[in-house]
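Q: Sequence in, structure out?
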Amino acid sequence: MKLTVIGYWGGYPKKNSASAGYLLEHEGFHLLLDCGSGVLAKLQNVLQLEELDAVILSHYHPDHIADIGVLQHARLIQGLLGKTVSNLPIYGHEFNHGEFVKLTYKEITKGVSYDPGKSLSVGPYQITFLKTNHPVPCYAMKIEAAGKVLVYTADSAFKEEFIEFSRGADLLLCECNFYGHQDGTPAGHMNSYNAGRLAQSAAVKQLILTHLPHYGDLEDLKNQASREFAGIIKLADEFLSISL
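A: Exactly. Output:
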């Protein structure tokens, strides 16, 4: 299983960058986790859009779904230009029905509802969910393939349930929207110490900090997390690629 970071900013993309978007590849199947602002432009550096096999969304805040409409129109135009383009499944929850119905567009994309209380199979991946602490319904994902485990926290304040959910994961892709001296709980986000403690308590093999703030020295996030977690820590970066 291979992860490539497409976008990693929280809230909105910095200049020439993208907000949340992560590409997973395994056995030739390409799954996009979230599709925020700028993701479509950046994704085309590593993948032709017709090669995308599925999209799954954690929640419906714009920094995680802003490019869904753009993706739909891109695939429509590709079809008009003669390329073979399948009806792309976009997985999302139905707790915001108004947003969910937008995932279906003509015969271009089809919204597929996931039940967060059940395991979901998407291509070679087995996905389970955990409701996060965020102002809107949002779901973390544990994604398993070929004996490897990636946990994506999506957007959330720290919660104890994350520890068991992430236990022993090969990679923890953890949101880190605040520095250690800040309390992100009211906004539904974690700080660097929260991320490090989670990684240490869950005994994960590697931690990637993502959904990063637009100010300060980002290296401080890594340094602060390292006071809690003794393992490998990386800051998410454009096109950072990790094979599990």
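The longest helix spans residues 68-80.
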